[in-house]
Amino acid sequence: MENSKIDMVKDYIFNEVKAGRIKKGQRLPSCRELSAQLSINKITVNKAYNQLERDHRVYSIPRGGFYLVDSDETSTNKGNVVDFQNVRPDDKLIPYREFTHAINRAVDLHKNSLFGYETPEGLPSLRTTLKHQFEKDGVYTSDDKILITHGAQQAIALVLQAVFLNSKGKLLVEAPTYNLVLRMAKHLGISVVGIKRMADGYDYKEMERLFKSGEIAAFYVIPRHHNPMGYSLSERDKQKIADLTNKYQILVIEDDYLADLGSKKGFLPIHYYDIKKTTVYIRSFSKTFMPGIRLGAAIVPEAIRQEILDLKHVSDLNTSRIPQAALDIFIRSGMYQKHIKRVRKSYEAKLRKSAEIFKGLSPKGLYYHIPDHGIFIWLELPKDVYGLALEKKLLQVGIKVKEASEFFPEGWLTENQCHNIFIRLCISGVDYDGLDALTQLLSAIRPDEAPIF
User: Fold this and answer.
1) Is Secreted tagged as a keyword (predicted)?
2) What is the pLDDT of residue 450?
């Protein structure tokens, strides 16, 4: 009898969501309100809400009620679309309840200072915590060299401004690379040069030629879980990059945004091999944890440190103290590591399933890369199959994919005669069963069914 009443409460909430009367992030009716409306005991309503929270469909704030999560089951706009475009964590893996407790604990511990301004560098206790966290990954530094930012993206933007504000040099990027960095560079008027990123690294003769020319001021690189290709550099590659950039005094901007997802044993960052310590090392807590808290960290060389601090101070004064304090508590309590293990396990299982599907159904002429770790799958399409047309065709059957032209420097694809043949897939926000849509995707790539302009 009680179970049927619990189901009644849950059905009521689902119907309210579908009707658009309860939206993402909105507070649910209180137990008292819904109890009176449905003529059900308040305890039963509370049990139903707790079940929804365990299913990661709602989250609670102590003494603040229950709030709707934007999940596959409760969203009003996702429908039956399988989204391989969106780069965000799986909603079911986001630790809403645990992090809410960390926020409340942070407010309790720091109530006398938490709502004041923070220093531009960031909360001292979090910087100390991150110093120890980074050491586990072979990143050795001191607290005073760590800068807390509004996500990795702000860290990259600050570095680009500091380096190129008074420089006529060019930015070397991988081709392909993170599309927003290309947009940042264009917005800041920075000239960009591309070097091809391959499964086995780069053409190092070409890299040295570019460095030797004296035109390159900085090299932006994603060493592992590359966006969009999913590749990770070997130790030899990272050592070579460090040697060349030290030789020609090139600043390295190392974006290790998915470091927490792990990689092969013994993986070390470029920062480790950089004997002159001129590498800017950047980490993110968005893609594997909570996009909304917008926290990142950067280890900044002394030569540009003050310039970056000045730029940060005039742009946003500081990074909010509340999420910093909560993240500090979340990491030190061990909850962050527990969360990351869960995320790794989920994503690695998805990648294994994806690999099995591709192995059995991959059409002739398709080149693909599916890593053991990370979130991206990279496709190079067969002859006469075009990325934009494939993207449009798949959208008609409820599958979103990303044609990859925007990940390349302007003009690079045309110069190299490989325009419109690449697709990026992201598995992070797709649930395990949703990966079955890859079967339909591969069917659409077959030559006899291929979309052609």
Assistant:
1) no
2) 44
Backbone angles phi, psi at 289, to 5 degrees: -125, -90
What's the start-to-end Cα distance of the chain, in Å? 59
CA distance 84 to 295: 24
Write down the pLDDT at residue 60: 73
Give just the sign of the alpha carbon dihedral 218, 224, 227, 230. Answer: positive
Does residue 302 surpass a pLDDT of 60? yes
Within 8 A by CB and 6+ apart from 350, the residues are 427, 430, 432, 435
Residues 6+ apart with CB under 8 A from 290: 89, 94, 95, 99
Distinct helix (H) and strand (E) counts, the chain: 16, 15
Q: Which domains does the chain have, with CATH numbers?
A: 2-76 (1.10.10.10), 111-335 (3.40.640.10), 337-449 (3.90.1150.10)
Amino acid 63: pLDDT: 61
Query: pLDDT tens digits, residue range 368-407?
Result: 999 999 999 999 999 889 999 999 999 999 999 999 999 9
Q: Is residue 228 scored above 50 in pLDDT?
A: yes
Q: How high is the mean pLDDT of the chain?
A: 89
pLDDT (mean) for 114-126: 81
Q: Among 179, 203, 202, which Cα is nearest to 192's?
A: 179
CB 146 within 8 A of CB 131: yes
Q: Which residues pair with 47 in a beta bridge?
A: none
What gap in Å lies between CA 60 and CA 35, rounded to an integer?
18
Q: Where are the alpha helices (DSSP H) in 248-383?
A: 270-273, 302-316, 321-332, 335-361
